[in-house]
């Protein structure tokens, strides 16, 4: 139904917007989309006109969503009652606002003269930006037109000051709400790349600085508006943050396959808007610079100076552009890569016109790549902090898919594990940028950054992503023209990129079988050092929860042991704990804000008692290691404060000392009455180790989990020789080295019951 067909009937009550509007806000597909938004605006216009008596010198003006005719099913109304100073205006305003409140609609309202509205806009950039959407609803149309013209004129006259303040507000909002393109539960209005940024782009365009709303931005904004419509319809109220539990239904309302397809579309649209806003701010900066320099011919000439920075690439007015000689009928296929590499190295943006030209005219790369293309890609990947912006700009114009056809599948793919802060493609680029930090730590930094870019290329395909990715990486490296030995190394890096972190956090590093197994997989010290630095780059690109000093120490320890074996030497002696834990009468206790250690007489159930003690102090164990030296058991734990308050060190130390003396009585309710946690079913995996049985538990974390599991083992009389506890976001992978005689089936059942 089009907007022209939505007319309120004479019987409609003035207390509500009428049945037409209500029907258009129902939970049905017809209430979603541009036509429905226009229809809602038409229904609201008709209702509001009936509410305003015919009074000379008064006009009702809509701003915000109604002003733009972008009314969502459960949106608010933003209205201005404009007047010329007529008497009784407050009573008239009340007669207008109260029916809206009675209809239980959100309302942001003001009653002002044109001059008062302009004064408010002069002092508040949000008000000024909102007035650019002003649209006449009822009353005197000439008064509405006067306000609209004056608001636009004032915006243009004060644009330099207003845009400066607006940019500050935008940056504050982005810092508070994050980047929509990379969020699993983003606010489609407030986050960077959301609908609020479309309004900012519109304001920049009205100021005459740039064509800030090109067709691709308008299309992206329309799709985000559709998402917001579907979200409102799905939950039956106003809410602009798309949460996980609403994702599937919103996707169905939009005709998308699943929640991942929805997230991917939102991410790509948000990137379009974000990139356009970044480009628009550069136009604002150039505009301000030109205005500051005024009419000085020498200043204008200085703006146009072109400085060569690489072959076929120059810098002009703070941007990367093509040298004139490069713009010919037969451009070099490696030109786009060389432009991107120069931009990343010099940390300068690529001009939009240059990106458009490259996307249109740069020919595809041959197979294998020419040496110039390989060199440019590796230079780009090794540029560090400049890589991300250059890659994102090229990705906006499809250049990255021309370099790597596999990139199309990776672009915008969400990663649902809570430790991941980026989409898959951005994670890979960030990992490559991180890897360049350690380029001097390895003999082949080129293979390090390329391996970082490709390490998760197999995600999203059936099978183990490391194994699948290794073959894809082999194909990519071969197409690039790498020598066969380098192709093998890249495939090995992708295949085994998780071996070091998984082994270091889940296995007993004092077990010779563990070290020999890793040495056999790695093969040589050169590959080992590449995998070591790749593990760092990958974890830091994943998110804060994926990396810690504890994890770094374990990986470094593992690499030192493997390096010894690969060099033909004997395994080093087991790493000894802090000497203070090995000396003096037992128990010995160490407590810090994020670390505790206990040395005590070894006994069955000691680890469970430590875990229970820490749980009573509301501390979460994020990593733990145990070892036994003679009769002395040593337990070291990295901990987090569950509720933010630091522990009372003296009280915690006293309780740990009682644990060491087997004198601490733990509350009976500890670990009981827990609520079931969502996630995949817990798993127990058995393995073999030197002189022990290896039990690996994979489960969703919950308070007191380690206490419950180790208590279950203690009740069966099972001795835990060594434990490696690793928490990653909502998941745990705990490895227990069990010694003695026991029934595996009974142990497995007890452990799963404890989870």
Automatic annotation (TrEMBL):
<dbReference type="InterPro" id="IPR043519">
    <property type="entry name" value="NT_sf"/>
</dbReference>
<feature type="domain" description="ACT">
    <location>
        <begin position="694"/>
        <end position="755"/>
    </location>
</feature>
<keyword id="KW-0460">Magnesium</keyword>
<keyword id="KW-0511">Multifunctional enzyme</keyword>
<keyword id="KW-0378">Hydrolase</keyword>
<dbReference type="Pfam" id="PF01842">
    <property type="entry name" value="ACT"/>
</dbReference>
<feature type="domain" description="HD">
    <location>
        <begin position="424"/>
        <end position="531"/>
    </location>
</feature>
<dbReference type="InterPro" id="IPR045865">
    <property type="entry name" value="ACT-like_dom_sf"/>
</dbReference>
<dbReference type="Pfam" id="PF01966">
    <property type="entry name" value="HD"/>
</dbReference>
<dbReference type="InterPro" id="IPR006674">
    <property type="entry name" value="HD_domain"/>
</dbReference>
<keyword id="KW-0548">Nucleotidyltransferase</keyword>
<dbReference type="InterPro" id="IPR003607">
    <property type="entry name" value="HD/PDEase_dom"/>
</dbReference>
<feature type="region of interest" description="Uridylyltransferase">
    <location>
        <begin position="1"/>
        <end position="308"/>
    </location>
</feature>
<dbReference type="InterPro" id="IPR013546">
    <property type="entry name" value="PII_UdlTrfase/GS_AdlTrfase"/>
</dbReference>
<dbReference type="Pfam" id="PF08335">
    <property type="entry name" value="GlnD_UR_UTase"/>
</dbReference>
<dbReference type="InterPro" id="IPR010043">
    <property type="entry name" value="UTase/UR"/>
</dbReference>
<feature type="domain" description="ACT">
    <location>
        <begin position="595"/>
        <end position="672"/>
    </location>
</feature>
<protein>
    <recommendedName>
        <fullName>Bifunctional uridylyltransferase/uridylyl-removing enzyme</fullName>
        <ecNumber>2.7.7.59</ecNumber>
        <ecNumber>3.1.4.-</ecNumber>
    </recommendedName>
</protein>
<dbReference type="InterPro" id="IPR002912">
    <property type="entry name" value="ACT_dom"/>
</dbReference>
<dbReference type="GO" id="GO:0008773">
    <property type="term" value="F:[protein-PII] uridylyltransferase activity"/>
</dbReference>
<comment type="function">
    <text>Modifies, by uridylylation and deuridylylation, the PII regulatory proteins (GlnB and homologs), in response to the nitrogen status of the cell that GlnD senses through the glutamine level. Under low glutamine levels, catalyzes the conversion of the PII proteins and UTP to PII-UMP and PPi, while under higher glutamine levels, GlnD hydrolyzes PII-UMP to PII and UMP (deuridylylation). Thus, controls uridylylation state and activity of the PII proteins, and plays an important role in the regulation of nitrogen metabolism.</text>
</comment>
<keyword id="KW-0808">Transferase</keyword>
<keyword id="KW-0677">Repeat</keyword>
<comment type="similarity">
    <text>Belongs to the GlnD family.</text>
</comment>
């Amino acid at each position: 139904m089009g907007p022209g067909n939505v007319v309120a009937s004479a019987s409609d009550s003035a207390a509500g917007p009428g049945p037409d509007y209500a029907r258009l806000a129902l939970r049905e597909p017809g209430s979603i989309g541009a036509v429905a938004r226009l229809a809602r605006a038409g229904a609201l216009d008709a209702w509001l006109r009936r509410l305003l008596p015919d009074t000379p010198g008064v006009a009702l003006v809509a701003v915000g969503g109604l002003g733009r005719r972008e009314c969502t099913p459960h949106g608010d109304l933003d209205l201005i009652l404009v007047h010329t100073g007529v008497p009784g205006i407050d009573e008239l305003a009340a007669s207008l606002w109260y029916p809206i409140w009675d209809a239980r609609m959100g309302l942001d309202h003001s009653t002002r003269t044109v001059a008062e509205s302009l004064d408010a806009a002069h002092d508040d950039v949000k008000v000024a930006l909102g007035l650019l959407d002003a649209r006449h609803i009822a009353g005197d149309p000439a008064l509405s037109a006067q306000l609209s013209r004056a608001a636009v004129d004032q915006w243009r006259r004060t644009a330099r000051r207003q845009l400066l303040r607006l940019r500050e507000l935008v940056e504050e909002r982005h810092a508070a709400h994050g980047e929509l393109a990379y969020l699993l539960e983003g606010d489609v209005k407030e986050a960077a790349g959301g609908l609020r940024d479309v309004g900012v782009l519109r304001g920049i365009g009205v100021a005459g600085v740039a064509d800030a709303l090109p067709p691709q931005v308008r299309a992206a904004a329309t799709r985000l508006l559709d998402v917001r419509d579907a979200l409102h319809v799905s939950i039956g109220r106003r809410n602009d943050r798309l949460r996980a539990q609403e994702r599937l239904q919103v996707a169905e309302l939009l005709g998308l396959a699943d929640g991942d397809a929805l997230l991917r579309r939102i991410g790509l649209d948000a990137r379009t808007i974000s990139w356009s806003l970044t480009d628009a701010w550069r136009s604002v900066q150039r505009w301000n610079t030109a205005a500051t320099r005024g009419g000085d011919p020498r200043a204008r000439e200085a703006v146009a100076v072109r400085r060569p920075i690489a072959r076929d690439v120059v810098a002009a007015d703070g941007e990367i552009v093509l040298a004139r000689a490069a713009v010919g009928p037969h451009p070099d296929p490696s030109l786009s890569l060389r432009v991107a590499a120069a931009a990343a190295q010099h940390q300068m943006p690529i001009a939009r016109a240059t990106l458009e030209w490259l996307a249109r005219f740069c020919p595809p790369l041959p197979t294998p790549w020419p040496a110039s293309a390989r060199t440019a890609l590796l230079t780009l990947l090794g540029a560090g902090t400049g890589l991300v912006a250059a890659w994102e700009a090229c990705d906006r114009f499809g250049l990255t898919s021309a370099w790597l056809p596999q990139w199309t599948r990776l672009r915008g793919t969400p990663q649902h594990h809570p430790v991941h802060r980026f989409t898959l493609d951005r994670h890979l680029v960030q990992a490559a940028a991180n890897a360049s930090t350690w380029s001097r730590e390895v003999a082949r930094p080129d293979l390090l950054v390329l391996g970082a870019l490709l390490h998760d290329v197999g995600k999203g395909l059936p099978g183990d992503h490391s194994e699948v990715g290794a073959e894809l990486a082999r194909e990519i490296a071969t197409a690039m023209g790498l020598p066969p030995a380098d192709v093998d190394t890249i495939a090995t890096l992708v295949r085994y990129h998780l071996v070091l972190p998984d082994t270091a956090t889940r296995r007993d590093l004092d077990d010779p079988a563990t070290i020999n197994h890793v040495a056999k997989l790695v093969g040589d010290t050169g590959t080992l050092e590449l995998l070591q630095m790749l593990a760092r780059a990958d974890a830091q690109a994943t998110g804060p929860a994926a990396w810690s000093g504890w994890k770094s120490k374990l990986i470094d320890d593992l690499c030192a042991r493997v390096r010894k074996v690969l060099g033909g030497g004997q395994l080093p002696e087991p790493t000894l704990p802090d000497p203070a834990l090995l000396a003096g009468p037992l128990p010995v206790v160490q407590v810090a804000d994020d670390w505790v250690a206990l040395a005590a007489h070894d006994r069955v159930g000691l680890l469970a008692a430590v875990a229970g003690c820490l749980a009573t102090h509301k501390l979460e164990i994020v990593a733990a290691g145990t070892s036994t030296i003679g009769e002395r058991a040593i337990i070291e734990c990295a901990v987090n404060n569950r509720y933010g308050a630091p522990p009372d060190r003296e009280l915690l130390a006293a309780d740990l000392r009682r644990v060491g003396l087997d004198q601490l009585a733990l509350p009976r309710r500890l670990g009981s009455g827990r609520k079931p946690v969502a996630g995949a079913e817990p798993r127990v995996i058995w393995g073999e180790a030197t002189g022990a049985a290896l039990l690996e538990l994979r489960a969703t974390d919950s308070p007191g989990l380690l206490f419950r599991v180790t208590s279950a083992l203690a009740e069966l009389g099972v001795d835990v020789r060594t434990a490696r506890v690793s928490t990653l976001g909502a998941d745990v992978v705990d490895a227990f080295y069990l010694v003695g005689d026991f029934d595996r089936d009974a142990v497995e059942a007890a452990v799963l019951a404890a989870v």
